[in-house]
Amino acid sequence: MTNEDLTAGELRVLVAVERERGFSAAATELGLTQSAVSHAVRAAERKIGAVLFQRGRNGARPTAAGAAAVGHARRILRLMDVMKAETHAASAGETTGAIRVAAFRSAAFHLLPTVLARFARRYPKVTVDVRIVQEIGRGIAGEVLDGRADLGIATLPSRVGGLVGRDLFAEPYVLAYPAGHPEPRSLPMIDWHENCSAETRLWLARQAWIPSSDIQVEDDGVVVSMVGYGLGTAIVPRLTLADASPKVAMEELDADPPMRHVGYVTTSEMLNSAVVRDLVGELRAYCAKRFAAAG
User: Fold this and answer.
1) What Pfam families does UniProt report for this protein, alphabetically (predicted)?
2) What is the pTM of this model?
């Protein structure tokens, strides 16, 4: 190691300053003095050769270079945690630690419970932290790239580069409507925000029967609830309607409907972790069985 190598302590400071949006709050979180935090940031900036934070009366905000540096810092610190856990497992024969998973709501509700139950039987002392993330903009893949999650269940293709991943399944979009309504396509449309493929956007644009949306919603669970109360219809992926209320019915869109492709995303470094690979394996096995049966 040379004097130009960043230390783990400096990486932790960068992450804390970005998270807390200030040097003072970061110092409090880390149990350091504010001058020590300032010194660590200046040292990191000198070693990297770029200004990482804009300082001002309202705190500290990462520059573009700072955001990139913090993302790498989170991932490096996470790899250090994984190294410790897997070294302990090799020495003691017992795997401990945690995996952080980011997923959209319907995947977390309808895929992860079975997968994590099977995973827990293999790794009883590994905890899995699941966080619901909206698939908007950089979405779930952005959380993985920025080091906030180890594994993501995301809509593919991802809008973020630099990750590895693979399809788990594909599912059609369907029309959800109030059960018993004789003409569901005459109802207002409830729109919800989600990343979708270019092919899906083109399909939607070609449908003359789809009215402009009267209601805009950010969560597909809220959409399904509104449909059940008769407020309108919605075009949603089929998984969204798993275990939906009897008040919600489903209609196929046409013989060649748009599809949502769902897969996992992670970093090449995390895929080297045996525990992450085994969790991916459980995901792939469960999805292959469930969606083959559905098809």
Assistant:
1) HTH_1 (PF00126), LysR_substrate (PF03466)
2) 0.83
